[in-house]
Write a structure and sequence with these properties.
Blueprint: H1 2-17, H2 19-35, H3 39-50, H4 58-74, H5 78-95, H6 98-114, H7 118-135, H8 138-152
């Protein structure tokens, strides 16, 4: 627990000093906690980010909502996860962040695929493909095509 408190204190100061750098560090720390299935650390990191009166950029808000959605997926809270991801998608779309949009479209497709709602998963994957092609992201396009093949198979 002491390690978590040190991390939270470090992020607090970093976020106060330089919000953009602090947010990148927060996303990295949150991703590590997700990969480790560390629910306590995820909860602490979310609480820390919400503490204070910080005005995140649209990209920052979208990233936080997306990460929170991923955490809710791990917890099996599918409806809450979809709601966070949908909100993240809105933020990215409103700000014209194509990379964020394509990432969240794939995340939503993955959620619907995991819950067996194939048509919805297909729709999200199909929405992501043209954006990936236009952006030249061949790696992510290949992943989406693979996901689409699984859904259609």
């Amino acid at each position: 627990m002491s390690e978590n408190l040190h991390l939270v204190e470090y992020l607090y100061h970093l976020l106060e000093y330089d919000l953009a750098v602090g947010l990148r560090a927060w996303v990295d720390a949150f991703n590590l906690a997700l990969r480790a299935w560390d629910a306590d650390r995820c909860r602490l990191l979310l609480a820390e980010l919400r503490r204070g009166d910080r005005e995140l950029s649209p990209r920052g808000r979208g990233l936080v909502l997306s990460r929170e959605g991923q955490w809710l997926i791990q917890r099996g809270e599918w409806e809450a996860a979809i709601a966070r991801l949908e909100r993240s998608l809105e933020v990215f779309e409103d700000s014209g962040d194509t990379l964020g949009v394509t990432q969240v479209l794939n995340e939503l497709g993955n959620v619907y695929q995991a819950t067996g709602i194939w048509k919805q998963a297909e729709d999200y994957y199909r929405r992501a493909l043209p954006l990936q092609r236009d952006g030249g992201d061949r790696r992510q396009e290949a992943i989406t095509l693979n996901n689409l093949a699984v859904v259609l198979g």
